[in-house]
TrEMBL record:
Domain Ig-like: 38-139, 218-337, 347-433
Record-linked SUPFAM superfamilies: Immunoglobulin
Protein keywords: Immunoglobulin domain, Membrane, Signal, Transmembrane, Transmembrane helix
Species in which this protein is naturally found: Chrysemys picta bellii (Western painted turtle)
Localization terms from the record: Membrane
Biological processes per GO annotation: regulation of cytokine production; T cell receptor signaling pathway
Chief location category: membrane
Domain of life from the UniProt record: Eukaryota
GO molecular function: signaling receptor binding
PROSITE patterns: IG_LIKE
Pfam (any one): C2-set_3
UniProt-recorded name of the protein: Ig-like domain-containing protein
GO CC, one annotated term: external side of plasma membrane
Amino acid sequence: MTPQTLQGYYMGGHVLSVSTSTQFTVIGPDHPVTAIVGEDTVLPCHLSPRMSAENMEVRWFRSEFTRFVHLYQHGKDEYEQQMPEYHERTELLKAGIMDGNVALRIVNVRPSDEGQYRCFVQDGVFHEEALLELKVEASGSPPQISVEGYQDGGIRMVCQLAGWYPEPEVLWRDRSGQLLSSSTKTKSKDGRGLFEIKISEPPGVSHTPHPLLLLSLPEKSAIWLFLHFVTGPGHPVTAIVGEDTVLPCHLSPRMSAENMEVRWFRSEFTSIVHLYQHGKDQYGNQMPDYRGRTELLKAGITDGDGSLEIFYHRRSDEGQYYCFVQDGSFYEEALLELKVAALGASPLISVTSHQDGGIRVVCQSSGWYPEPKVLWRDLSGQELPSLSEAKSLGDSGLFETENSIIIKERSNQNLSCWIRNTVLNQEKESAVYIAGQLPAKPTSLNHLQQKENKT
């Protein structure tokens, strides 16, 4: 650094010429700048105190002063001796140059851009510089896990990933979190300098259900990959009585199940809901309740999809199902739950008799599952107390309900009977309008006007 200089030549008390260099400090970020491969990034740099750098030299370089990343000199950019790898990839951001901002943009960041940069600024004989660090990262494609043959009586899993930078750490752990040594690991760099890694599962892990893979980058959070060989939905599947639904199930990693055994069963392995074996469906030992009502969806079987469709659902279909897949001596299964629901008929409201100085109004409905919730409401939506309630299972296994209320007021009344299925979150409602005086005879319904509303 050269101190501020000032030289003057006087003649007759007048200054003939003055040469000055302004003193300043060059400031960069106090932490590394992180850039993503393929994207653009800005290396911040500015003068302090703030002043115009329009007529100064601004030089960005790496280890050698003469091999520059970008050079601004004599009021314009100079590219003649620029490092070839930065050709047409740099830009000095001049929007703030009058305010001392000399930040550099690098476009289409590469792994080779990582490292230290110097922001050098010179005004006359005075110069200063700042040192900053650029870190480059790339999160490549998700790990691809595949099966590469049999080994030691089990299958040999291999994980491959590409497009990562810096080199990620890839580890196998067992279900308890214990670190396992990998049998083989190979790594290389592609044309862009990004890492490609192939790591195989440790010997013997294929005999253990659910091996785990841990993937992490330096100074980054780990990514856990749980290798459930057969996976189902993580929540219950809901089916409507009388309609069709699909029970999802697939292999992980994705592989063809065309030549495997896919068995769907309930509580007992031999109580078969559906069986696919030797490349075709087998119906000889299928449970009678499911005959003609199941189909293994083979459109995705080469991609590991073993989903089962059940037609025209019944109340008895509710419960747990096992999706079992076997390939040679290796097998796995997933457990899933099926919930069955039915939305019954709209409530029917009727007047049955005089009772306790009023009239007894009854609400009836059938075809509900599970047991529905029944409420009476007035015109304002306020809940009214019921006189009695009876619920029973009909021959179809669906609920029938009867709920009654006593109306005593001798004025116009608006009532509604509201029935809700709590599984489907759907309801049906019927309303009745009672006009004027209470009827002289309970059988006379001329004063009743009834309407239905389905939500």
